[in-house]
Amino acid sequence: MNYFPLPACGEEGKTSRVREAGRGYWRAGGATSHFDGESKMVMICRIVWANKYDSLKEEFFAGNFKHPKRTREAHEMLNFANIGGWVYGYVESMGARISLSNLRKNKSSEVVHGVTVIWCALDPVHKSLHVVGWYENASVFSEPQKPTKNLRRKEITYFFKAKSEDAHLISPADRFLLVPTKTRRTDRGFIGQRNWFFPERYPNYKKFLESFALLASGEPISPKHPIPFDDVTFEEGQRTYAEISLTARNPRLVDAAKKSYGLECQVCRLNFEDRYGAIGKGFIEVHHLVPLSRRKRYSATVNDVRVLCANCHRMVHRRVPPFTIDELKQRYRPSPSPHKVS
């Protein structure tokens, strides 16, 4: 199952958890998702990327959000915190109201109930927009609501409210469903500068909503069995390897890292020239121990970076914050029969 409903709540602010076998995430036993893609009012909301969204102290990837990037604070970090059997969702509004008239058949201007809210975020590796979870049967408010005094949220406002049993969080390793985005500034009918969107109004999201309906029903979605988006395009240059990015900033740091650490991956010991011959000569990727998005300064020394092969570089970023080099070494399993290309 690819979705993880929050557990039922016992005492206020405490969760009674049931561990999903083999995973570090939690779900409530017996919960079922009923999204059918037709009868529901739907919103898409863009937030920062995190693993659990249940603590303000949790690490996150800010993506394009300027305020969380600068202050290292993101109010959506409590979007999946079970508080008295409810979850309260925040989206950065920049002072704007949510126009509820955009929801199908809705006439209310203050609050509307029974909405499916799909949460999405930029993943730290590819910088593409992925579904990270959703609320069902949520109440959506046009204005930010102040929490009651006994809530863990303190003074943090919210726009969405749902029962915890209707909140579904996807494990980072299973966040495969992409949200269509525009590829040119002139494109219309895609999520834009505002961090919420009403996809039912736009044909660009028809296939996405069909795919989401499968996800919500428990249908497996994975890289091995992807759901096709034959009408979705992706922004050129969206996927950038670290060495290219670093070269654009300071090629001397890349050269210095190669001279200091060599051309062998510091986790799996792969040397690209040994493995691939001449085409691999001089190639290795450079990894920042502290991601650039979390750095207060953009200058760096050789001590701030390491050299990794492409595979290990991808794996080190499978978590926010990234794994340390030693942590990845402990997880690494050598190939039983390495080979060389002459």
Overview of the structural elements:
- This protein has 7 helices and 10 strands.
- Strands 1, 2, 3, 4, 5, 6, 7 and 8 form an 8-stranded mixed sheet that branches. Strands 9-10 form a two-stranded antiparallel sheet.
- It has 2 domains: 4-216, no CATH class; 242-331.
- With 342 residues, the protein is an alpha+beta fold.
SSE map:
Blueprint: E1 4-5, E2 41-46, H1 66-71, E3 86-89, E4 111-122, E5 129-145, E6 158-163, E7 167-169, E8 196-197, H2 206-216, H3 242-249, H4 251-261, H5 272-276, E9 285-288, E10 305-308, H6 310-316, H7 325-331
Parallel strand pairs: 2-4
Antiparallel strand pairs: 1-7, 2-8, 3-6, 4-5, 5-6, 5-7, 9-10
Helix pairs in contact: 3-4
The residue fraction in helices comes out at: 10-25%
Give me the Rg, rounded: 22 Å
Apparent shape: elongated
Q: Write down the domain tally.
A: 2
Low-confidence stretches: 1-32, 224-249
Largest sheet composition: 8 strands, mixed
Beta-strand segment tally: 10
Q: What is the helix tally?
A: 7
| Residues in β-strands, percent | 15-25%
Quick summary:
The protein has 342 residues and is an alpha+beta fold. It is built from 7 helices and 10 strands.
